[in-house]
Amino acid sequence: MKKISLACLIALVPLASGANIIPTGTTITGAGPGLYSWSYALTLSADQDAVAGLPPVSETVPHVNLSFGAFLTIYDFAGYVAGSCNGPAGWECMVQNSGFTPDDVLPNDSPAITNLTWVYTSGPTLTGQPVGLELGAFSAQSIYNQITSVSYTARGLKNNGSSVGTIADNVGNTRGPTSGVPEPESLALAGLALALLSGVRTGNKR
User: Fold this and answer.
1) Residue 193 lies in a domain
2) In the chain, which end has fewer C-beta atoms inside a 10 angstrom radius, N or C?
3) Contact 49, 161 (CB under 8 A)
4) What's the gap between Cα 147 and its chain centre?
């Protein structure tokens, strides 16, 4: 079993101001060759509420629409095992290749790799006051157990101050599975860099 410490995770994650739902720990458990369970501990910030509502219907989720439920998306979850995504009661897991992304943040999202979105669709309003709220374990299986840094985004509702009742979105990085094989885009960039470097060296010999 591999467990990522909270201190290491916080050091890696650049949180946006007004953070709301935050991955605060990742546990990877091997269930056999090529089958690994990834479990994320999610925390609701003290100044945020999670309100139940409709699941997103488009890749980009507008922040002016208050009918959508609180949600968190983990991007580029490589090697996802179909049907394995789960969350606590009231949270629905949605699987897609692009989005779901709040319209005022910009995560890294490869359309060739599965994204996982947990949406709070039913239940009472969850409040982070006064010291934050542990939301429970959110999990999915992957055929990979190698770790990489992936983006996440989240949406909550402000519960205090002058902006109470307004939507707050955030973006950051967390842990996700990877095959360990570079994506085609990365290979293309590496090839271009080598070609440019070769040209520079050739020019220097003249």
Assistant:
1) no
2) C
3) no
4) 14
